[in-house]
Amino acid sequence: MKFTDSKLLPPGLERSLRFYVTNPGPCPYLPGRKERKAFTNLAVSESDLIHNMLSQAGFRRSQTIAYRPACPRCNACRSVRVPTRDYVPSRGDRRTLIRNAGLTRRAVEATPTREQYNLLRTYVKSRHEGGGMSDMSYRDYANMVGGSPVRSYIFEYRDGPETDSPLVAASITDVLQDGFSMVYTFFDPDLDERSLGHFLILDHIRHATDLGLPHVYLGYWVKGSPKMDYKRRYKPLEVLDGDRWRLLRDDE
């Protein structure tokens, strides 16, 4: 189905790109509800420019597709981003950073490796068994990370300074004009005490600040969804409200 709600799109893009809407399907966040997504193909000329504009309009990337929720009577999925210049680590944040001070971050081209895939499989089996990625093959993973039409890297986190130190965490990260967009993260589930998922976000905020990038995009926050509500711990947090970004209030 053709997507026609131009209010959700940056000016001009509704004329230069084709947007479509998926059929209704079960909502992965709120039981008993249906979801629909608007999407378009990013494998076009000036893909980075278009990706930047769509990201600021609340779209996310999956392989060559940019998508955003388009549910007629629900607005529970809200795009959120951290304004890096204003973020002040809490005491708990600082403890997490100290616990992981021995990790070495290395940005590598978005080219799949068996080592990354094995870590992903371990993570998915522990945290998301039975989910949509449970049966992901190495070829599926290669398509997931290797076919990006935009500027994208894998941030590898190794437990030591050597390039062959154990890989304990990774993030598929897009680089936008105004920040990082964290597409997908995975880590060693046996290292719960190190709070690696939390650390990856904190390190992206820290790295973006060092580079002068003003935002880290965290995807969608869903009030009432336990697996998505954790994002509001990163304060201040900006939420996309219609066509403008504003600070998320404590009472929301």
Specify the structural class: alpha+beta
CATH classification, class level of one domain:
Alpha Beta
**Helix-strand pattern:** HEEEEHEEEHEHHEEEHEEE
Strand content: 25-35%
Query: How far from one another are the termini?
Result: 33 Å
Query: Helix tally?
Result: 6
Cα-atom radius of gyration: 18 Å
User: What would you call the quaternary organization?
Assistant: single chain
Average predicted confidence as pLDDT: 91
What can be said about the biggest beta sheet? 8 strands, mixed
CATH topology of one domain: Aminopeptidase
Proportion of residues in helical segments: 10-25%
Low-pLDDT sequence parts: none
Strand order within the widest sheet?
8-9-10-11-12-7-13-14
Which architecture of one domain per CATH?
3-Layer(aba) Sandwich
The beta-strand count equals: 14
Q: Note the overall shape.
A: globular
3D architecture notes:
Helix content is 25%, strand content 29%. The chain has 252 residues and is α+β, with helices and mostly antiparallel strands. It has a domain at 91-195: Aminopeptidase (3-Layer(aba) Sandwich), CATH 3.40.630. Strands 8-9-10-11-12-7-13-14 form an eight-stranded mixed β-sheet. A four-stranded antiparallel β-sheet has the order 1-4-6-5, covered by helices on one side. The longest helix is centred in the last third of the chain and has 16 residues, at 196-211. It is globular. The model has no long low-confidence stretch (mean pLDDT 91).
